[in-house]
Design a protein that fits this description.
The structure holds 2 protein chains of 2 kinds.
Chain A (H helix, E strand, L loop, with lengths): L2 H17 L2 H8 L5 H9 L18 H13 L6 H13 L9 E4 L8 E5 L2 E12 L6 E8 L2 E8 L4 E3 L9 E10 L2 E4 L8 H31 L1 E2 L2 E2 L4 H30 L3 H26 L10 H11 L6 H15 L4 H6 L2
Parallel strand pairs in A: 1-4
Antiparallel strand pairs in A: 2-3, 3-7, 4-5, 5-8, 6-7, 9-10
Helix pairs in contact in A: 1-4, 4-6, 4-7, 5-6, 6-7, 6-8, 6-9, 7-8, 8-9, 8-10
Chain B lengths: L14 H18 L4 H4 L8 H10 L8 H4 L3 H4 L10 H14 L4 H17 L2 H12 L5 E4 L15 E5 L2 E8 L10 E7 L11 E7 L5 E7 L5 E14 L3 E2 L5 H13 L9 H11 L5 H29 L5 H26 L10 H12 L10 H11 L4
Parallel strand pairs in B: 1-4
Antiparallel strand pairs in B: 2-3, 3-7, 4-5, 5-8, 6-7
Classes of the chains: A alpha+beta, B alpha+beta.
């Protein structure tokens, strides 16, 4: 790991360990916006790793972004941080200015389409996008929409969007946004290096890293609990039945971390479709297994709201289904592998 | 907040390794031609001395060993070795290509993977001079004598005794599950040279044993498929000369632990069922239905991730680190994956597994269904590996 990433890793770990407490998470779930946390994240330059330094960003790579996004998952950071990182990258890649404040992305469903049309000297946006992460909290929404027969990236201010609030299992905002001929701050044809379904792909990429981080948390938390909780006169972690479960959890977390890191490396090389599919399938599967084991090891206390475990497991159960579940990605991956023929598998694998 | 989870840094293969891959593929195409899938499914179980000698001539055995121990075939090696030994990553590429092609590598696999490295690390200079060049030429096959009738996972409880005798040791006892002992030249065996019931990890010593020594009786152990690769090896006053002891008396446990790390760290621990996955993809065709596509995609996601994890372990070895823990973890995940493939193929296709009739897929399924139980036994059982992982988590 290079020096910048080590430094970045230290910054996020310190910041999130200090600030993202169970009390903060509970207050956000009641509807409080963690403004001070957002400001600290922005001040530390964590929101724009993929934006050039000349444009106010960190001028980094997906590998650098990975450190931040993974840590945001590990600490269940209740902010649209991953969304802002991807949205800012989309803007910058398409030659648009990146505004300050939290951003989100729309549409996040493959079957939803927004339409961009010229109005006077500018643009207007129409359509509805559901399940938009942190829709109500974003100061701007970055959308991909069709205009003049080509995909465009457009920026819409929060005040011009009608929001119907909804949420995922972790009570993170997943809102319906209605763009009723909404004015557009800026728009441009999507960057040449970006595919039209970038929101879907890079959203899946981000969730993979968040889940990999969440699994790391589960390993540490469940292991610590198993060494502290005593039954039958000894720590439950002294029992082989528990050790076996935690070994499997450790394996799943390690597989998830590797798959996510591999996908981010591919994003830096360009053309990461294969690795993103691999990551979303493998990490999503690990998330389900890991959440189940962590709960079993924690016993009844882990099933309470009072215990912090649920902040992570509810996120994992939601994140694995967002931007395509394992089934969708596995079928997509399977079709692309099958299309190359049986003898194409090994050459494909070794080329990645 | 959380204890450190296991770290698998991604490993980048250097251009030299990728250049080597093309050479290896060309060699394999020429050597193996249209080897049927059921033969490829033997993975590193296929035995062919001639093939091993060809590998040796290419410089693909003992690749990372110092030239002075494997370098006397300079003329054949020079095309491939330019002024330095090969890196562990170049070796990794050769191994994974061999496994992916199902090449018959068994006659040199054990010596290349663990016997040679063991001698390099703990052997005498005379032992290295005597054995390593022949191993690197693909001419010496090794077996491993560890397990005994009453000592499997509890390896430290072995009872085969090596007692001092003039000029060496007299050995009495029995080894079991000794793969390929009946066609190997030497065995590296673990014997008890000192007995103290309270300290069973002490008093163990490793020896090089000439498989043709008097006092050694081999008898086959037939596996569930009816085939012979295991053996029972009985020692009755078998003599092992002093100069074939490996390391100091009593150092055997430490050496065996290091050896098992070599044994667990390679790509052979997740690729054993690759031939069946390839046949599955052939069977579902280029435009599979949703369920078949999702089944293939899921397996490929596991495969691609395991390869990156396995490469990461190779990178740690290359960097001189000790990846014992990570190797145990990849082996447990990898063998689960290898065992799952026949189950998944059965669930998806429902075809009958066969022995030597029916389609390539059916035969490969038949072979792997029956061979799969061994995957999580050989080289350290699943239970032992999970114990190692639990220790890594601080639970032991």
């Amino acid at each position: 790991m290079n020096e910048l990433r080590t430094l970045l890793g230290d910054v996020v770990t310190r910041l999130f360990t200090d600030r993202v407490t169970p009390d903060l998470l509970a207050s956000v779930e009641k509807g409080q916006w963690p403004g001070a946390l957002w400001e600290a994240v922005e001040e530390n330059g964590l929101t724009l790793p993929l934006v050039a330094e000349a444009k106010g960003g960190a001028g980094g790579t997906w590998g650098d972004a990975h450190v931040v996004i993974r840590a945001s998952g590990r600490h269940a950071v209740p902010l649209p941080l991953a969304e802002t990182i991807v949205a800012a990258w989309l803007l910058a890649e398409s030659g648009l200015e990146v505004p300050a404040g939290p951003l989100t992305l729309a549409p996040v469903h493959r079957d939803e389409r927004l339409s961009l049309s010229r109005a006077g000297g500018g643009w207007r946006l129409g359509g509805t996008a559901s399940r938009v992460p942190w829709g109500r909290a974003a100061r701007h929404v970055v959308v991909v929409a069709e205009a003049e027969a080509r995909p465009h990236v457009a920026l819409v201010a929060a005040g011009d969007v009608r929001v119907t609030e909804d949420r995922n299992l972790a009570l993170e905002p997943r809102d319906t946004l209605v763009f009723d001929v909404a004015p557009v701050v800026a728009a441009a044809p999507i960057g040449a290096r970006v595919s039209p379904d970038a929101v879907w792909f890079y959203g899946a990429l981000a969730r993979s890293a968040q889940m990999a981080g969440g699994l790391e948390y589960l390993v540490g938390q469940a292991t610590r609990y198993a060494t502290e909780r005593r039954q039958f006169g000894k720590p439950i972690g002294a029992f082989q039945a528990i050790q076996w479960q935690l070994a499997i959890l450790g394996e799943q977390a390690a597989a998830a971390g590797t798959a996510a890191a591999h996908a981010f490396r591919a994003a830096d090389r360009g053309d990461p479709a294969f690795e993103i599919a691999v990551a979303k399938v493998r990490v999503g599967e690990a998330a389900g297994i890991g959440a189940s084991i962590a709960h079993q090891v924690h016993g009844a206390i882990g099933f309470t709201y009072e215990h912090a475990l649920q902040f992570m497991t509810r996120r994992l159960w939601s994140w694995r289904a967002e931007f395509g579940g394992e089934g969708w990605w596995a079928a997509t991956l399977g079709r692309s592998v099958a299309a190359r023929g049986a003898d194409g598998l090994w050459p494909l694998l070794t080329a990645r | 907040m959380a204890a450190q989870a296991f770290a698998f840094e991604l490993c980048e293969l250097p251009p030299a390794a990728e250049a080597l891959r093309a050479e290896v593929r060309a060699f394999l195409r020429a050597e193996l031609g249209d080897l049927p899938p059921v033969r490829r499914a033997r993975s590193w179980g296929g035995w062919d001395r001639e093939f091993s000698r060809k590998m040796g001539a290419r410089g693909w055995i003992g690749m990372t060993w110092p030239k002075r121990y494997g370098g006397h075939e300079r003329s054949a090696l020079e095309r491939y070795v330019v002024g330095h030994e090969r890196s562990a990553l170049e070796r990794y590429v050769v191994l994974e290509e061999m496994l992916a092609a199902g090449a018959p590598v068994s006659a040199h696999w054990v010596a290349d993977r663990q016997s040679g490295p063991l001698l390099l690390r703990f052997g005498t200079e005379a032992q290295r001079q005597r054995f390593l060049p022949a191993i690197a030429r693909g001419e010496l096959a090794f077996a491993i004598g560890m397990s005994e009738p009453d000592s499997g996972s509890d390896l430290a409880s072995i009872r085969t005794r090596a007692e001092r005798a003039p000029g060496g040791y007299r050995v009495n006892g029995t080894k079991v599950w000794t793969s390929n002992a009946h066609r190997s030249d030497y065995m590296i065996a673990l014997f008890r040279t000192h007995h103290d019931p309270a300290k069973k990890h002490e008093g163990l010593t490793q020896f090089l044993v000439d498989a043709k020594s008097p006092g050694i009786t081999l008898s086959p152990i037939i596996d569930l498929r009816g085939s012979h690769h295991f053996n029972m090896v009985v020692f009755e006053d078998a003599f092992v000369p002093e100069d074939l002891r490996v390391g100091e008396e009593g150092a055997g446990w430490k050496q065996v632990t290091a050896e098992l790390a070599f044994e667990r760290s390679g790509p052979e621990r997740y690729l054993s069922s690759l031939a069946l996955l390839v046949e599955l993809i052939r069977e579902v065709g280029r435009e599979p239905g949703e369920r078949a596509a999702a089944t293939v995609g899921r397996l490929v996601a596991h495969l691609a991730t395991l390869r990156q994890m396995s490469l990461s372990v190779a990178g740690m070895l290359e960097a001189g680190q000790n990846p014992n823990l990570e190797a145990a973890l990849v082996k447990d995940l990898g063998t689960n994956f290898e065992q799952e493939i026949p189950e998944v193929v059965h669930a998806l296709l429902g075809v009958e597994p066969t022995i030597d009739t029916g389609s390539d897929l059916q035969q490969t399924l038949g072979y792997l269904t029956q061979n799969a139980p061994s995957f999580s036994l050989r080289g350290g059982t699943r239970e032992i590996l999970r114990g190692i992982i639990a220790r890594g988590l601080g639970l032991r």
